[in-house]
C-alpha cells in the first residue's frame, strides 16, 4: 500500500511538472492532475490539500536536484572566477529542463506564506553556494554580491523563458560576461 501511494504521489508530481512546464500556474489544477494521472479528482485531494501543497512538494523534491547540478558544475572548476561562470552557465543551461520550468512557473504563482518561504529558503541555499567564491575574489560583502549576481541570472532566465529574439546561447554569454565584469569589481 505504501509503495502504491508513493508511486501515485510521484505520478502526480510528474504530471504537475508537465502542466507547469506546458501552461504555467494556470494549468496546474486538480482536474488536470486527475486527468493526467487517471485518478479521480477526489483522489488527488487525498495526496495534496491544495495547489500550494503540490508546489511546496515540487520545490522540496526538485530544487535540491537542481542546486546539486549547479554545485557539481562549480566543483569541477578551479578558480573563483570559473566557479562564478559555472554558477551562471549551469543555471541558464537548466532553463529548458522541466524541473526548472516548473520552479520558474511556481515562483511566479500565488502561493501561501509557507510555500513562498520554502522557495525563498531554497533560493537562499543556491545563493550561498557562490558566496565563498566571491569572498575569494575580494568582495567586502560577498553575500550582497551573490544576491546581485543571482539577480543577473534571474533576469537572464526570464529573458530565455519569454522566448526573446536573442538566442539563448547569446543571453547566457551576455549574462556570464556581465556577471564576471560585475564580480571582478
Structure summary:
The protein is an all-alpha fold and 185 residues long. The chain has helices at 2-23, 30-37, 41-47, 51-75, 80-93, 98-107, 113-136, 142-161, 168-184. The radius of gyration is 18 Å and the shape is elongated.
Poorly predicted sequence stretches spanning 5 or more consecutive residues: none
Shape: elongated
Through-space gap between termini:
57 Å
Strand content: under 5%
**What would you report as the Rg, rounded to the nearest angstrom?**
18 Å
In percent, how helical is the residue content? Answer: over 70%
Number of strands: 0
Question: DSSP helix count?
Answer: 9
Order of helices and strands: HHHHHHHHH
Mean pLDDT: 86
| Quaternary organization | single chain
Q: Which structural category do the helix and sheet elements fall into?
A: mainly alpha
Largest sheet: none
